[in-house]
Amino acid sequence: MADWYYHDAAQGRVGPLSVEDMQARYRDRRLQRDTLVWREGLREWQPADRLSEELGLDAIQPDASRPPPLPAAAPIAMTPSAAASGYAGASVRTDMRHAPAPKRGMSGCLIAVIVLAVLGLPVLGILAAIALPAYQDYTVRAKVMQSFSEANALKAAVAEHMAANGRCPSNGDDGFGDAQDYATATTAQIKIGTMQNGHCAMELELRGLGPGADGKTVWFEAQQQGNAVNWDCTGGDLPGRYRPQECRGQAAP
Predict the structure, then answer these.
(1) 126 — alpha (psi -120 to 50), left (phi > 0) or beta?
(2) Per-residue model confidence as pLDDT tens digits over 142-167
(3) Of 103, 68, 89, 113, nearest to 12 (Cα)?
(4) Cellular component GO terms, alphabetically (predicted)?
């Protein structure tokens, strides 16, 4: 006859037992209908209720004077080979051997970071290529405006001289220094004199502004209209992007 086993919450696997032993345990309520049982030939553990006919449980009345066993957590499923060997741990190791191996590779978050980095670097490069020249142009314009501000006082003196003497002053005239006398951190020199078209003008030569602007010039051409003198600042070779809007005119960008 086949040897039977059943799982007890406190003792674990119990057996081998005969059919009569299984019936006795069912009678004194140590074995319930939902107790997992196994015998050789079964592929897996089954509730006793499924094998009640084979075990002869239907004809047995459990002893009502005995309390049923306390409920317990579901037992670890054991393979038939583990039950026959008498070592439940073998089932655990067997299940672990058949468990799928953990997937190796990069996590989704890491992949996302790499993708963003790969896509982001060119974008950052483009933004830098746009922003850096724009910032450099801004700093040059700020220095140009500083030089223009320093020349404003001299424009007023030139206009007064024209009104008082009826002619354009030159460097070295009374009240006017040499061209280099007007040098500052952003101004190399200021030349004063009459242009070929007969207009009085000042030529402002810049320095300390950086490549593309150092050594460039701006002409302030006096245009007398009645008693007023207006100044045109579109002349010279300073690129238009470094000039204030009113001084760009036809200057190269």
Answers:
(1) alpha
(2) 999 988 988 887 888 998 888 889 89
(3) 89
(4) pilus
Mean pLDDT value of segment 53-60 = 90
CA-nearest of 177, 176, 168 to 197 is: 168
Of 97, 64, 62, which is closest to residue 79 (Cα–Cα)?
97
Judge if the upstream peptide bond of residue 80 is cis by omega within 30 degrees of 0: no
Residues 147 and 204 sit within 8 Å (Cβ to Cβ): yes
Contact 246, 225 (CB under 8 A): no
Beta partners for residue 220, in sequence order: 202
Domains of the chain, each with CATH number or no CATH:
4-51 (no CATH), 138-247 (3.30.700.10)
